[in-house]
């Protein structure tokens, strides 16, 4: 299951989606406390409906890693838990979850404390910016890693794929993590995440 969206439409829709998610959570008392403490934005109350999960090309391995690590209660960093828990919950709750590969800021970025509104935008997308785009080496390395994993997974910006199918591709095509998709430090729980997800989808 793969469909194509133009880059313009994709950027437009991710911008709308990010704005909606932030507006859903930005006015609650708990979110005010979260932001003031310097943590990522808590989006646990967001109503996703049937919208696909938007992920940048290098983020699926991170989602698998966090699926495994959160399940085994190995994530102690509160900001990381807030950022990834809502995405992990979607994977758990939606057996037919669709992932859409995007080039700009995605659902993981939207939960990051470093994402800030910016009328000028950045290399990563319109409407927002973060610290990473100010580092040319990081921009280059992320771009090259994204290009590499898209080729390995036979995907492209605008692709839509069921999470269950993406897990199988990751296991077969990207068995070992490299820099900018998690690296060696994430390998153990990436493998566990793949294992748990295969069990979930076979049940």
Describe this structure as you would to a colleague.
The chain has 203 residues and is mainly alpha-helical. The chain has one domain (7-202). It contains 7 helices and 5 strands; from the N terminus they run H-H-E-H-H-E-E-E-H-E-H-H. It has helices at 7-25, 29-36, 60-71, 78-93, 136-153, 163-173, 187-202, and strands at residues 53-56, 98-102, 116-117, 128-129, 160-162. It has a 3-stranded mixed beta sheet. Helix 3 crosses helix 4 (78-93), helix 3 (60-71) packs across helix 7 (187-202) and helix 6 (163-173) packs across helix 7 (187-202). It is globular and about 45 Å long. The relative contact order is 0.18.
Total number of helices: 7
User: Termini separation (Å)?
Assistant: 21 Å
Which structural class is indicated by helix and strand composition?
Answer: mainly alpha
**Uncertain residue segments:** 10-39
Largest sheet: 3 strands, mixed
Average residue pLDDT: 82
User: Any idea how many domains?
Assistant: 1
| Total number of beta strands | 5
């Amino acid at each position: 299951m793969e469909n194509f969206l133009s880059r313009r439409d994709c950027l437009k829709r991710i911008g709308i989606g990010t704005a909606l998610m932030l507006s859903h959570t930005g006015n609650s008392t708990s979110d005010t406390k979260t932001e003031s403490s310097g943590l990522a934005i808590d989006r646990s109350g967001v109503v996703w409906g049937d919208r696909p999960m938007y992920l940048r090309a290098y983020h699926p391995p991170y989602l698998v890693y966090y699926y495994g690590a959160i399940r085994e209660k190995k994530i102690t960093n509160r900001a990381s838990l807030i950022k990834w828990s809502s995405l992990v919950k979607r994977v758990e709750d939606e057996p037919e979850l669709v992932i859409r590969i995007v080039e700009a800021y995605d659902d993981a970025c939207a939960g990051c404390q470093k994402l800030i509104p910016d009328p000028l935008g950045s290399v990563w997308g319109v409407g927002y910016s973060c610290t990473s785009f100010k580092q040319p080496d990081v921009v280059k390395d992320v771009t090259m890693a994204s290009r590499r994993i898209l080729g390995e997974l036979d995907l492209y910006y605008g692709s839509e794929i069921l999470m269950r199918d993406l897990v199988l591709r990751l296991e077969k095509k990207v068995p070992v993590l490299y820099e900018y998709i998690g690296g060696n430090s994430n390998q153990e729980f990436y493998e566990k995440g793949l294992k748990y997800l295969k069990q979930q989808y076979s049940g």
